[in-house]
Amino acid sequence: MEGFTLLLFCLALLNNVQGDTVRDTINTLQSIKDGQIIVSPGKTYALGFFSPGNSKNRYVGIWYNEVSTQTVVWVANRDNPLTDSSGVLKLDETGVLVLLNHNKSVIWSSNTTRSVRYPVAKLLDSGNFIVQDNNNNNDPKYLLWQSFDFPGDTILPGQKFGRNLVTGLNRYMSSWNNSDDPSKGVFSYQIDVNGYPQFILRKGTFKRYRFGSWNGIQFSGAPMLKQSAITRFNFISDEEELYFSFELTNKSVFHRMVLTTDGFINGTYWNNDGKVWNLHARIPVDDCDNYDKCGAYASCNINNIPPCNCLDGFIPKTADIYGGCVRRTSLTCHGDRFLKLSGLKLPDTERSWFDRNTSLEDCRILCMKNCSCTAYAALDVSKGPTGCLLWFGDLLDIRELTDVDEDIYIRMAETEIEAIERKQSHKSNIWKPGTAFISCALFVGILSLCLTFIIYRRWKTWHKEKNKGNLERDDNVINEHEKEDLELPMFELSTITSATNNFSPDNKLGEGGFGSVYKGILNDGGEIAVKRLSKNSKQGLQEFKNEVMHIAKLQHRNLVRLLGYCTQAEERLLIYEFMPNKSLDSFIFDENKSMLLDWPRRLLIINGIARGLLYLHQDSRHRIVHRDLKAGNVLLDSEMNPKISDFGLARSFGGNEIEATTKHVVGTYGYLPPEYIIDGAYSTKSDVFSFGVLILEIVSGKRNKGFCHQDNLLAHVWRLFTEGKCSKIVDGTIIDSLNLSKALRLIHVGLLCVQLSPDDRPNMSSVVLMLSSESALPQPNLPGFFTSTSMAGDSSSSSSYKQYTNNDMTISIMTPR
């Protein structure tokens, strides 16, 4: 024992004698003090203490050793600086790196899930700082920790950038706050695993730029990043990992990817002759790279004025050139065809499905069979078009690019495609006219415009006189038999226009895809909310009737009350009781207003929604499935009591019916269960899934869409639940009023409701019992935040990683809203 102690003393003495002698490792008997460095074996990188820019704070970082201008590529304590030069970096006996200040307090530390007998930390020539077992330094399984897993604003050659699907590790970039402060800034760049994986540059929670999907050769939105004799790019997507990396054929060149403080991704290399970093790639490139610059179904071309144009078969949605486009001809589902477009950055894949083993023809068939599928494309074009990528919902963030050799097939009505084909054929056969013909055509055109203007003015005058004081009800909306069965009053349009001050903007409460909602005051002083469907509303006639027919006969304190309707002068109006506190989402997702919902109030809201759903599923005359339950469709009265609203998508079951299927998938992504999105199967268990999402949103205060974490909300909650860390899920604004045991029980119930299999989910009567009792709860199975089941059915591929939540978008193809 004395001999071993003497050996340790001698080693420590040798370390002190060496002083600033350069080495590439530290062990448990060594440390790095401010002023000392370690250097990689090839003298490429150095690790030590530094101060950025004009700051006096001290940080531990890695920089290029042979570059004259200090260029930092990684910072350990970026969010916790040292205020003086007393810092010491050590490796403890468990293999954890610790940074200590003058008080011996830990400023920063690495982490590890296991320990080894002889840990050592080493700086590699790749720029990676690792901790491993010194006796097994060539075996990856003995790697305890590495800096490459925790990038800052820089990615180096060979460094993986993406997600480990097994451990949940998310390797993403985040900008410095400024040149003097390496703490996390407002810009981040990371992989989004919703749908087909893609890389997104964000400013806060807002998308700034999207790389586009990987097609086996390049990213469709970044053609400058393609394989070359100098650079090789890799994109790996399998059961365990999703990541991007790049390699250099010339290892002597210093190359890095940097996320700048102003939100650009710069590819730079060191010019040793000029002693400067040269820029060879910068993203975003131009204004068309800004995310969704032109809106849905529109493409951006930087060389055009204006830059935005609708895709073939689409027309502008509004007068705003950046407002997106809508279909010229509505889809008919099975009578549709696909229009092939080339030279485009493929649309946002957040709401997509993919499979690597499906052929392009089978991909077309799959899309045709699903009426919610709006487009398809090959997944990989490196060896001919293979694999399948399907889009659901609007096609967003499209731009024209000359260097993209990839096709997309967009769903359109057959008549629309025929019109496009005739137009293209006509263009190709037109004989170039002479000057006289052009002059004649111009004269005829001007004359036609004048005549059209005169006719329009006369029609407008006639139409105005026709409607003045003679507003007829549209009996085609709801027939006489239905009216008798309804026992619901029809309001005069004049009454509604008077109550809403002629639909004044000052009376507007909100708007959505269906139109707008206005506050109104009747002659007797009663307050109402008027839902006015726009003329080009996404909520069609059937949904209007659906809501009137369903909600008119429903009577429950947790369901919003329909007071009447109006169908005069082509108007479609629904009149509800007025809810002064608007919708639940305006509270729980608002940083300031969320504090108004303390824990007891949130508990009452959850119980109220549960009772309302139980009434729909069990106690009403017909079993009703809501199909669009979400925070935005839960209204709050003056006492903050919840009332379920918006029954436009609801469906009723009669007799012993318990389930139905549809090819017209409607609802809101983020709240829809997987079996409904993929197979169109819906039942009361669909609403149970939506309710489970609502529970977790109310408890956490986080929206399923835009959840700022490496996982979506369901995956995040599931991971913390399995790790026994459920207390981290709870909204921090309600800690003071919280009953922790009750909150943990609610989280448990929420996870039971969002289980992947509908058979595993409880019915609402069981849910209400769980919420009101302290009985033991069963263990939940995997939530429906992803599934490896192939939509193609026969495919055995398990690489089709699909997520179905984290998207708060109402979807509907055949029955839009």
TrEMBL record:
Residues 1-19 form the signal peptide. It catalyses: L-seryl-[protein] + ATP = O-phospho-L-seryl-[protein] + ADP + H(+); L-threonyl-[protein] + ATP = O-phospho-L-threonyl-[protein] + ADP + H(+). It is found in: Membrane. Its EC number is 2.7.11.1. One of its GO terms (cellular component) is membrane. PROSITE patterns: BULB_LECTIN, PAN, PROTEIN_KINASE_ATP, PROTEIN_KINASE_DOM, PROTEIN_KINASE_ST. It comes from the Eukaryota. Residues 503-782 form the Protein kinase domain. The keyword RNA-binding does not apply. ATP binds at residue 531. One of its GO terms (molecular function) is protein serine/threonine kinase activity. GO terms for biological process: recognition of pollen. It is a single-pass type I membrane protein. Its main location: membrane. Residues 23-144 form the Bulb-type lectin domain. The chain crosses the membrane at residues 436-456. Keywords: ATP-binding, Disulfide bond, Glycoprotein, Kinase, Membrane, Nucleotide-binding, Serine/threonine-protein kinase, Signal, Transferase, Transmembrane, Transmembrane helix. It holds the Pfam family PK_Tyr_Ser-Thr. CDD domains: B_lectin, PAN_AP_plant, STKc_IRAK. Residues 333-413 form the Apple domain. Belongs to the protein kinase superfamily. Ser/Thr protein kinase family. This is Receptor-like serine/threonine-protein kinase. It comes from Psophocarpus tetragonolobus (Winged bean).
